[in-house]
Write a structure and sequence with these properties.
The protein has 151 residues and is mainly β. It has one helix and eleven strands. The chain has a single domain, classed as Jelly Rolls (Sandwich).
Length: 151
């Protein structure tokens, strides 16, 4: 299944400066640090007036998107730095099955006044496929390990 229209996943680009590696973060109207606690399976959220731009800075989690009555599982980890953009109107949630909290940066783009309902959970219409979510994260970790060996 391809990505949902409007959702983008981009590798985070960096510049080497001596021993340090410098990453450009996304432009934003507001930047938040978000903690996805270990062992959590979150409900869905939908934002009416904001675009989320997510970047994991510690740990990993699976972003869940609901579109056309199907879940799409997008694994995110510090082992493969990438930014996921979620436009307004897309139902999304999170799964963190690991023993470690996940920290991410959300560089919000505002398209109007914040709506309090944007941060109230929406009940899942049907359960997540936890095995599929776990498999997506295992595949990401395997890709990251393989590219580490090649590099």
């Amino acid at each position: 299944m391809g990505l949902i229209k409007g959702i983008q996943i981009r590798p985070l680009e960096s510049v080497q400066g001596g021993m340090a590696e410098f990453y450009n973060l996304q432009s934003s109207d507001e930047t938040m640090v978000v903690k996805v606690p270990a062992h959590t399976v979150d409900d869905l959220f939908i934002h009416r007036n904001q675009t989320d731009q997510l970047l994991v800075v510690r740990g990993s989690f699976v972003l869940v998107i609901l579109y056309n009555r199907q879940y799409q599982y997008i694994p995110l980890s510090t082992r493969e730095p990438q930014v996921v953009t979620i436009p307004p109107g897309i139902l999304h949630g999170s799964i963190n099955l690991s023993n470690q909290d996940c920290l991410l940066v959300n560089a919000l783009l505002r398209h109007g006044e914040p709506n309090p309902k944007d941060y109230q959970p929406v009940k899942k219409p049907f359960p997540y496929d936890i095995q599929q979510a776990q498999l997506s994260l295992q595949n990401l970790e395997a890709r990251a390990a393989k590219s580490l060996v090649k590099g």
